[in-house]
Amino acid sequence: MKVLVFGGSFDPVHKGHVAMFRKALQIIRPDVAHVVPAYHSPFKAKSPTPFNLRMQMAKAAFSSLGKNIIFDDCERKRGGKTYSYQLVQYLRQRYVQPDIYLLVGTDCLNDLHAWKNPEYIFENATVVAGRRKGFAEHKADFKHLFLPGVFPKMSSTRVRAHILASGSVPEDKVPQSVGHIILKNDLYGLEVHRWLKAHLKPNRYLHSVKVAEQCSLLSDIYEVAAEKAVQAGILHDAGKGLSGTELIAFCKQHKISVPFFEDICRFEPSLLHSYVSAWLAKHEFGVKDKEVLAAITEHTLGSLHMSTLSKILFVADISSKDRKYKDAFVIRTLAAQDLEKALLYAANRKLWFTIDSQKWLCPAGIELWNHLVKCAA
Ligand SMILES: [Fe+2]
Ligand SMILES: [Fe+2]
Fold first, then answer.
1. How far does the centroid of ligand 1 lie from the alpha carbon of residue 220, in Å?
2. Which of 94, 114, 139, 291 is most open to solvent, judged by the fewest CB atoms within 10 Å of its CB?
3. Considering every ligand atom, which ligand is closest to the CA of 316?
């Protein structure tokens, strides 16, 4: 009896999953196929998408591929992480002498030896994988099978980052039926977009989307988690809808600590929006990541201890594609090559812009400039 098993977070299911599973069904022709969404502990999960919704997405995406598919909630019943070897164990108990085929992502194949109890998997199952473009294939010393063809390079993480950045589901990556579930349940940050649309002017909302997209691009180059970069980008101006007087009142009401507060209140209260945005990110949207919150706080004036994420947001904010001035293009181009140089250039432009506008120069901006010049020397 041939049993195909396909486990994953399916958070969400994307077209790469569908293509691999379809091909595996065609090639292996199993008597039965188990689709096993992973159980995430709500306290440890990277994404809080409930199991039920991920199961719904798996059913929506895979049901039409065959009649002999079991959508298996064994991981939820266990209530904890199930290792692949345990999945194989479970199927050996469930069926009489099953011929088990374990479908895995291509990227997993090279590090299969690092999995828990890999010997058990190699002895009791055939590992099935699809090739992706550019995949460097190592020699596998265990029973395995490559599906014919090349499969699209997609990841659920990227899909989530795309939705959070743009507020839309990428049709080229997500099956339509899965897209409906995402929209219906406001998954992956769609509620953030609704909030921003309600609280910001259309131009400011568009700017937030463009900054998030720019953050996503730069996160790839500088190896920062895309979801963190996009989260910082989309929320960085959440407080920008408030007037100067409202920003001052907000900071006082919530006891937000702001350096040079008195002077900022007197000369340039709009600078407070980055502190208010960070507060909103934390309290309105539940962002806990300190690096993300710091990046939002620092996006206007910078700091002397900026993380790569902070630098990305600072630069993306001044050079996003909605910015029409010439410098935006220069900084954007520079940012793709050298983040430090782009940061120096961005800080320089901000200072000159403030002086040209005959506005008050916050000492934090001057401190940042001196710090960057020292670092560059
Ligand atoms: Fe801002
Ligand atoms: Fe901004």
1. 22
2. 139
3. 2
Q: Nearest 5 degrees, angle CA 352-CA 357-CA 360?
A: 85
First and final CA of the chain: distance in angstroms? 69
Residue 140 alpha carbon to ligand 1 centre in Å: 50
Structural domains of the chain, ranges and CATH numbers in brackets? 2-154 (3.40.50.620), 200-376 (1.10.3210.10)
The structure tokens listed for 145 are 């099978």
Q: What is the pTM of this model?
A: 0.90
pLDDT by residue (tens digit) across 266-323? 999 999 999 999 999 999 999 999 999 999 999 999 999 999 999 999 999 999 999 9
Which two structure tokens, joined as six digits, stand for 123?
Answer: 């002895």
The rounded Å distance from CA 275 to ligand 2 centre is: 13
Distance 205 CA to ligand 2 centre (A): 9
- Judged by its nearest atom, the ligand closest to the C-alpha of residue 272 is 1
Q: Mind listing the pLDDT tens digit for each residue in 96-118?
A: 999 999 998 776 767 777 788 88
Residue 283: predicted pLDDT: 97
CB 183 within 8 A of CB 228: no
Residue 101, classed as helix, strand or coil, is strand
